[in-house]
Write a structure and sequence with these properties.
Keywords: Methyltransferase, Transferase
Domain Methyltransferase type: 43-137
Strand order of the largest sheet: 3-2-1-4-5-7-6
Strand content: 15-25%
GO molecular function: methyltransferase activity
Shape: globular
Distance between the termini: 48 Å
Pfam family, one: Methyltransf_11
Protein name: Methyltransferase
Length: 270
């Protein structure tokens, strides 16, 4: 079983149904936390469906905000969600189509763990940032702060021990504050700071939660989509039994992300 086979991120609508209800709440909190002055130039690397890009456009009063992503499908969704407030470009995080020091803030949302060489991407983000500018991102706390995914993989592993190889808690070391702080510090960024962002979102019924798992976007949905129908139904039942479903069928689940920021040193700074 190869992990990359299930790391599919391409369909914007499917991602929004899966994680969008949380990711957009976190994006707003992240932009407010950064506190970048009005009139800044922003670059959102790995912009996905545009949750962070649109939050910057709505809340930060930028002079310009550009979203970059490798997925044409995600960029289509991002343009539709953001409208004329931002520009978008298809690009790899390790080779950004901007000149040195062009941006006041280079940011990224929930993408770092899926990059094959995150240190290279961080170096490229710093290159695109002006001296004194911000380089920042946030990632899901897969280790302890993703209640839904934790319960999902526990249920899946009970039915199929091989599923443990796909569990993000084991695969993604950059989901913890110590690892993020070390990565930002090693990149030579100043004033490195890490903070949690916690949000909660509700579901009217378990079916609303389960349906996005059938679309194959990301490790857990990719695993579900690959199962035979009887195995899929057993997993569905096991997951539902593990969740705090209320008598009326509704439920509320929380998530935590870790946010990290640092500033690009100015020339001659010590």
């Amino acid at each position: 079983m190869t992990e990359q086979r299930f790391d599919v991120w391409a369909a914007g609508d499917a991602y929004e149904r899966y994680m969008g209800r949380w990711s957009r709440l976190v994006a707003d909190r992240f932009v407010d936390w950064l506190g970048v002055a009005d009139g800044a130039v922003w670059l959102d690397v790995g912009c996905g469906t545009g949750a962070l890009t649109s939050s910057v456009a709505r809340r930060a009063r930028p002079r310009l905000v550009v979203g970059a992503d490798r997925s044409a499908g995600f960029l289509t969704a991002a343009r539709a969600a953001t409208g004329p407030l931002a520009r978008f470009v298809r690009a790899d995080a390790r080779s950004l189509p901007v000149r040195d020091g062009a941006c006041d803030a280079v940011v990224s949302a929930l993408a770092l763990n899926f990059l094959p060489t995150p240190d290279t991407a961080l170096t490229e983000a710093a290159r695109a940032t002006r001296p004194g500018g911000l380089v920042a991102c946030y990632v899901w706390d897969y280790g302890e702060g993703m209640e839904l995914l934790g319960r999902f993989w526990e249920a899946a592993t009970l039915l199929d021990p091989a599923a443990a190889a796909l569990d993000e808690r084991h695969r993604f070391p950059l989901c913890r504050p110590e690892a993020l702080r070390a990565l930002w510090t090693a990149a030579g960024l100043d004033g490195v700071h890490v903070a949690p962002i916690e949000v909660r979102a509700g579901f009217a019924a378990f079916a609303e939660l389960w349906e996005p798992f059938l679309a194959g976007q990301g490790p857990a949905p990719g695993y579900v989509a690959a199962l035979a129908p009887p195995e899929r139904e057993r997993l569905r039942g096991a997951l539902r039994a593990s969740l705090p479903v209320r008598p009326d069928g509704s439920l509320t689940l929380g998530v935590r992300a870790w946010a990290v920021l640092g500033r690009k040193p100015s020339p001659g700074a010590v």
